[in-house]
Automatic annotation (TrEMBL):
Protein name: Esterase
Highest taxon listed in the record's lineage: Bacteria
Species assigned in the record: Kutzneria buriramensis
InterPro entries, A to Z: AB_hydrolase_fold
Length: 247
């Protein structure tokens, strides 16, 4: 095992020990309140070459729209499972949240599957058909932060990112098998491009992407760091703060 591998293994072991000792912070809980209204429909995405689920939460005409981008291994419906409808209800949010399925390739094109094109070319039409307005903000979780920052930069939107899964080097990026090559990664990697003018970042000390989050935080309007891992429990803990900032 090389030096980098030894460092990574040591970090994993340290996090495991801190978890056993209860030093990674408490898990957040889903508020015990009735959720806001949720709608799940299927849309044909030519950009992705497949049907995707289109989820709206707290939808109402005239409300501003925030697009939430899910993490790897999750989906649009996963944002409902995370408890976002209850968090929106508890916050008495005056905005709509929408989510779409983006796959697992870090929201960048892979072959004929282009989730960024779906966001820019197809999502506005789906929103109009649902009686909703144009996106006004972005919320990303884990891998969704990568795609969310790309989307926010292109659309000129504010972005809130929780545990941003970003890569400081190609050696790190290639391990997730999401990018065609180093050139594609560099063309999309948010750390290699200007970040949104309005940006909020939340990340735990024990998160494997902590160093990347610190780099993002240097450009953020608000940056919050505390003990926490790359888990649903951490995201549930910080979602109330992120939603307040987005409001």
């Amino acid at each position: 095992m090389g030096t980098a591998g030894l460092v990574a293994a040591a970090a994993v072991e340290q996090t495991r020990l801190r978890r056993l000792l209860g030093w990674t912070g408490p898990d957040g809980t889903v508020p015990d309140v009735p959720p806001v209204a949720v709608s799940v429909t299927r849309q044909k995405s030519a950009a992705r070459g497949c049907d995707v689920e289109f989820v709206t939460m707290n939808a109402a005409p005239g409300l501003q729209v925030c697009v939430v981008l899910h993490g790897r291994g999750s989906s649009a419906r996963g944002m409902v499972t995370l408890g976002l409808p209850q968090f929106l209800a508890a916050a008495r949010a005056k905005f709509t949240v929408v989510a779409v399925d983006g796959g697992d390739s870090y929201w960048v094109p892979r072959g004929a599957d282009d989730p960024q094109k779906m966001l820019t070319a197809e999502l506005p039409g789906w929103l109009r058909a649902a009686g909703l307005g144009e996106p006004r903000a972005v919320l990303g979780i884990s891998m969704g932060c990568f795609g969310g920052l790309v989307y926010a930069r292109q659309a000129g939107l504010p972005a809130a990112v929780l545990s941003p899964a970003l890569f400081r080097s190609w050696d790190d990026a290639r391990t997730v098998n999401a990018f065609a090559d180093e050139a594609q990664w560099e063309s999309y990697e948010p750390l290699r491009h200007p970040l949104p003018a309005r940006l909020g970042v939340w990340c735990g000390y024990e998160d494997p992407f902590y160093d990347s989050a610190r780099e993002v935080a240097a450009h953020a309007e608000v940056a919050d760091f505390d003990h926490g891992e790359h888990t649903d429990g951490y995201w549930r803990r910080v979602l109330p703060d992120a939603l307040r900032w987005l409001a």
